[in-house]
Design a protein that fits this description.
The structure is a homodimer of 202-residue chains. With 202 residues, the first copy, chain A, is of the alpha+beta class. In chain A, 49% of the residues lie in helices and 9% in strands. In chain A, strands 2-1-3-4 form a 4-stranded mixed beta sheet, sandwiched between helices. In chain A, helix 5 (91-103) runs antiparallel to helix 6, helix 5 (91-103) crosses helix 7 (143-150) and helix 5 (91-103) crosses helix 8 (153-168). The interface between A and B is medium-sized, with 33 and 33 residues.
């Protein structure tokens, strides 16, 4: 039996969005499942690494905006939100994800896809728990229940545990794919991840 | 007539070393020449962007060391210097490069390859102008002359102009490839650069 590959992502990360669209097919080609893990760039990048937000970094911010739009165009991905738009508070979405993963693990990936599609694809504001009511979710997962959970203490506590675990594993960026303990950071690494899976490392 | 693609690099960057081994064949496949441009991460990253050195950044430093060694293994590249080793003062090498590019442009790429091979491949210390005397250079380029030039004012001034120009173009990382004004940062972007060249953008 092989282990699932871990897919660490932040909803505010456009590169996480891009990679989320490829990770399941990639994993499936190598007989792997995907373990979806929400992380928070605000914690890893700002608190632990002591860096400023990417988009506020001179030179790198403008480059990143350009790179994100170029990536979306190349892959034909919907992107109504601009990378230079103000960043939402990611906590309601990330808490909702942590809660669903705990209570309805079979729907965790669908929720992540729904949030990414709404936020980056459609440009919706998901910064309030109530805004999650508008998400298009699979039968069996109530958007009202998700929105309510996102405002509660249990979701906050589940997310804290998930974020602490990702930091402990050394994850700092979105997306990060971990294959049997081997971390790969960045959507640009997915081809290398695939070669690693195919060869079993090198 | 197509323009050369610009290849911006810092000698202290292992990713610049990796990309330097592929850039000429990549460009040639699309009928392009390569315009080699030395830049200084110490100026762009630390002074302009206000970030700490990559290897001193929590989480990202250890990840990068692992990623660099993994990349070298995958591509079979010699690497006697460890990414976690202390970083040399890049000025003598970069000044030598700027001087050779100005006076012997036909040897600029060969000098860059020789420095990268000696520093990263063989683990030599090239932090003093005199250390450049040991470089394996093509006939017509005297290592003694290069070492002497690296210690002089003209080379320093030529490098300053080259670094200023790269900053003005928004280049901040090593390697950065610029195709007809379109910047691509990182060795992981070389496949995308190749698709961009093949399609003429998108």
């Amino acid at each position: 039996m092989t282990s699932p590959i871990q897919f660490h992502f932040d909803f505010i990360s456009p590169y996480g969005y891009f990679a989320s669209r490829r990770i399941e097919a990639l994993a499936a080609r190598h007989g792997r499942a995907v373990d979806w893990r929400a992380m928070l760039l605000g914690v890893s990048v700002m608190k632990v690494m002591g860096l400023k937000p990417l988009m506020d970094t001179p030179l790198k911010g403008p480059y990143t905006a350009r790179d994100v739009l170029r990536h979306a165009r190349e892959h034909g991905l919907a992107m109504k939100r601009q990378p230079s738009d103000p960043v939402m508070n990611p906590l309601p979405c990330a808490r909702a994800f942590a809660w669903v993963k705990h209570h309805h693990p079979e729907h965790a990936a669908a929720l992540a896809h729904a949030i990414y599609a709404a936020y980056w694809g459609e440009g919706q504001d998901l910064s309030q728990p109530a805004s999650l009511r508008a998400l298009a979710l699979p039968p069996g997962l109530s958007a009202d229940a998700v929105a309510q959970a996102a405002a509660g203490d249990e979701a906050a506590s589940l997310l804290r545990a998930m974020v602490d675990a990702s930091l402990k594993e050394g994850v700092f960026g979105s997306p990060t794919v971990v294959v049997d303990g081997e971390p790969f950071w960045g959507v640009d690494k997915l081809d290398q991840v695939e070669r690693w899976l195919a060869r079993g490392g090198w």
